[in-house]
């Protein structure tokens, strides 16, 4: 196999594990514009929790925050964030900045692969022209584009880079072939060659949009069944015994992907005059869940009551607090006049304080609450019994188990547990 000189741009949840894996087989530079991130990584600390201290110590990856050190590269892989702005529209600044940087550095014969999630057309119609303009080179003649969407699922040790099928696409068959070889070594050849870059871009964005819509459906039925006094989880468990019923659970949809990517597709749809009705309805329902949960909780509480929320990150077993929807429950309850504390063993206390102005509290029995809301299913909470949680409650206190983890547990003290 040919050894390439690769530069991975953006070393976050996606870029770092990828750059680390590729560095086993190729000469890899990992560049991140955030110097603090690079300094931490050079001290063997990955705040995303994806790469261990020991693996960072042993890595062959060259870590840099100085773009001048990007030299002699023939493959660029771009893994920078693609969030949305306040109008819920694609915010492509980081992607365009990274493309400009590549334009400044690129040499004839190079390939530029995008991994960031986008809507169809961004790689070829928006990023490629930036590289051409800055470099003076011609796309498809002097350099080539590729797109390989990332599917990793942080906090999930089963669906990691070496296990999941990687979709690759290039501007022509040769480029797709080169990319298949590069990525294939890190996952035993589990490569799917998409028929075009736009197909690969579209496939990625619909994977997450489909998930968002499916969750929106169960969230909507949870609102209906809540009003009917029926347990949604019991109903789902029952319906799930049919062979083709899809297994989704109601809950909060936050984070950097599922709650964001559908807006990318919706944006593109609207640009071409198509109204993305289901996509946006799903987004509205899911974005409203924090408020719905807070209103349900408030039916059981009075102004001045104390509430403890367990879990603040956007999902279980990760430290990622970006776009967490637990904040919606927190804000709504505060507005109702309830005193709310939040505990989270995975989130970085200082980051939560800096971003959300909230002081996380430890889970102790010293302070007693009227209600506990289990919002995120961290492994630490799975070890707790109903009785353990009961020690943090005042008498007649209750638990809102949004994840349904206490449903089958012994409850000798008959603590009131509400769930979906
Ligand atoms: N996190 C996930 O689970 C996941 C999964 C699949 C796909 N994705 C997609 O992958 C992309 C990256 O997501 P992430 O979660 O790794 O983001 P992240 O925020 O964890 O990491 C991005 C990194 O890029 C750096 N960066 C930003 N602008 C830069 C620039 N111009 N030049 C160099 N570095 C820059 C940041 O400092 C940061 O360290 C996004 O498009 C996302 O939608 C993410």
Average predicted local confidence, pLDDT: 95
Strand order of the largest sheet: 3-2-1-4-5-6-7-8
N to C succession of SSEs: EHEHHEEHEHEEHEHHHHHEHEHEHHEE
Distance, first to last CA:
53 Å
Radius of gyration: 23 Å
How many helices? The count is: 15
Q: How would you sum up the major sheet? A: 8 strands, mixed
**Helix proportion of residues, in percent?**
25-40%
The hetero compounds bound to this protein are: nicotinamide-adenine-dinucleotide
Low-confidence stretches: none
Briefly note the CATH topology name of the largest domain: Rossmann fold
Structure write-up:
The protein is an alpha/beta fold. It has two domains: 5-193, Rossmann fold; 215-419, Rossmann fold (3-Layer(aba) Sandwich). Helices cover 38% and strands 15% of the residues. It contains 15 helices and 13 strands. It has helices at 15-22, 35-42, 53-58, 93-105, 122-135, 173-184, 197-227, 232-239, 261-271, 277-287, 289-298, 326-336, 349-356, 379-382, 386-390; strands at residues 5-9, 27-31, 62-64, 75-78, 110-114, 143-147, 166-170, 191-193, 306-310, 339-343, 369-374, 393-401, 416-419. Strands 3-2-1-4-5-6-7-8 form an eight-stranded mixed β-sheet, with helices on both faces. The protein has a five-stranded parallel β-sheet with strand order 10-9-11-12-13, with helices on one face. Strand 1 (5-9), helix 1 and strand 2 form a beta-alpha-beta unit. It is globular. The mean pLDDT is 95. It binds nicotinamide-adenine-dinucleotide. Nicotinamide-adenine-dinucleotide (NAD) binds at residues 9-15, 31-34, 37, 79-82, 94, 97-98, 115-117, 150, 152, 154, 256-257.
């Amino acid at each position: 196999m040919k050894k390439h000189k690769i530069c991975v741009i953006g070393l976050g949840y996606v870029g770092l594990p990828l750059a680390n894996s590729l560095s086993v087989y190729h000469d890899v530079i990992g560049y991140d514009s955030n110097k603090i991130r690079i300094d931490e990584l050079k001290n063997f600390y990955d705040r995303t929790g994806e790469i261990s201290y020991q693996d960072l110590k042993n890595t062959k990856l060259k870590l840099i925050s100085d773009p001048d050190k990007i030299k002699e590269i023939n493959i660029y892989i771009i893994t920078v964030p693609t969030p949305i702005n306040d109008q819920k529209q694609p915010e492509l600044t980081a992607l365009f900045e990274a493309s400009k940087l590549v334009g400044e550095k690129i040499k004839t014969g190079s390939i530029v692969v995008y991994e960031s999630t986008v809507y169809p057309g961004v790689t070829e119609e928006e990023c490629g022209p930036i590289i051409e303009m800055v470099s003076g080179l011609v796309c498809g003649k002097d350099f080539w584009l590729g797109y390989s969407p990332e599917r990793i699922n942080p906090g999930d040790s089963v669906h990691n880079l070496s296990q999941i099928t990687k979709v690759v696409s290039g501007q022509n068959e040769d480029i797709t072939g080169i990319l298949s070889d590069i990525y294939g070594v890190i996952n035993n050849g589990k490569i799917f060659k998409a028929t075009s870059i736009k197909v690969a871009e579209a496939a990625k964005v619909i994977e997450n949009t489909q998930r968002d819509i499916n969750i929106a459906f169960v969230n909507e039925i949870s609102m209906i069944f809540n009003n009917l006094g029926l347990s949604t989880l019991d109903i789902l468990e029952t319906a799930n015994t049919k062979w083709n019923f899809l297994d989704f659970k109601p809950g909060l949809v936050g984070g950097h992907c599922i709650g964001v990517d559908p807006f990318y597709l919706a944006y593109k749809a609207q640009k071409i005059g198509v109204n993305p009705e289901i996509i946006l309805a799903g987004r509205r329902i899911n974005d409203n869940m924090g408020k719905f949960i807070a209103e349900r909780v408030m039916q059981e509480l009075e102004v001045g009551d104390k509430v403890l929320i367990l879990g603040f990150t956007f999902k279980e077993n990760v430290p990622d607090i970006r776009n967490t929807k637990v904040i919606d429950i927190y804000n709504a309850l505060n507005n109702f006049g309830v005193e709310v504390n939040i505990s989270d063993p995975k989130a970085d206390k200082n980051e939560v304080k800096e971003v959300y102005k909230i002081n996380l509290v430890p889970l102790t029995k010293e302070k007693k609450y009227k209600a506990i809301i289990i919002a995120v299913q961290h492994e630490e909470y799975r070890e707790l019994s109903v009785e353990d949680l009961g020690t943090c409650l005042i008498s007649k206190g209750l638990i809102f188990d949004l994840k349904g983890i206490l449903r089958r547990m012994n409850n000798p003290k008959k603590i009131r547990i509400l769930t979906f």
